[in-house]
Amino acid sequence: MWASAHTGEKTRNVIAHWRQAFAVLGIPSAVKTNNGPAYASQKVRQFLQLWGVSHKFGIPHIPTGQAIVESAHGTLKQVLQKQKREMQGETPHNQLAEALYANNHLTVPQNSNNPVILNHHLLLQASDKMHQPGAKVRVQNLVTKQGEGPYDLIASGCGYACVSTDTGVHWVPAKCARPDLRPQRKNLANRQAGARDQMKVIKWMNHRVMTQMEMM
């Protein structure tokens, strides 16, 4: 979940919220809103076109599309209410940040025995055989200081990385995971060797042509 605190609901507030959301969640392929004046303005249309985001409007009086938003609003309000006493005197931005952190990283659904982080990375909830392999990375062993891998990178974020190894899923500091560049270097070496062989053939053919011309 992501939310931001603003003093109004005008076009500039909508754009400011989306800028922050893009920075945290990434750029979406599309966003869906109601057709209120702030969302239907020309500035919003230009902003989304600049970012390459498709804009879809919900159908009025049909609450299905709005249900997810209202549910998120209700959850966030509950968290804010629970921490109201301990956050008294804090700015609205600080209160919201605390609530988002609690909801995103400290909340465990009922009847769930998974670590908190698994509940917020859906890809990790699948078995090792079911996950979709991502980029290949090499991981530095903190004990031996030796590089291991390559392993499939499943998820990464600020300061952490999750990789799939032969013994299961492992979480490591981000500084210990580096892209596996060996295939690229091997391909480059092969291309360079192929280019050298091609140059040798060209030189040999040129030499042969010159020899024949001298004999004539």
From TrEMBL:
Lineage, top ranks: Eukaryota, Metazoa, Chordata, Craniata, Vertebrata
Source domain of life: Eukaryota
Organism per entry: Hirundo rustica rustica
Protein name, entry field: Integrase catalytic domain-containing protein
Pfam families xrefs: rve
UniProt key word Transport: no
GO molecular function terms attached to this record: endonuclease activity; hydrolase activity; RNA stem-loop binding; RNA-directed DNA polymerase activity
InterPro entries hit by this protein: Integrase_C_dom_sf_retrovir (IPR036862), Integrase_cat-core (IPR001584), RNaseH-like_sf (IPR012337), RNaseH_sf (IPR036397)
Gene3D superfamilies for the chain: Integrase, C-terminal domain superfamily, retroviral (2.30.30.10), Ribonuclease H-like superfamily/Ribonuclease H (3.30.420.10)
Keywords, ordered alphabetically: Endonuclease, Hydrolase, Multifunctional enzyme, Nuclease, Nucleotidyltransferase, RNA-directed DNA polymerase, Transferase, Zinc
Annotated GO biological process: DNA integration
Keyword Transferase among UniProt keywords: yes
Record domain Integrase catalytic: where: 1-123
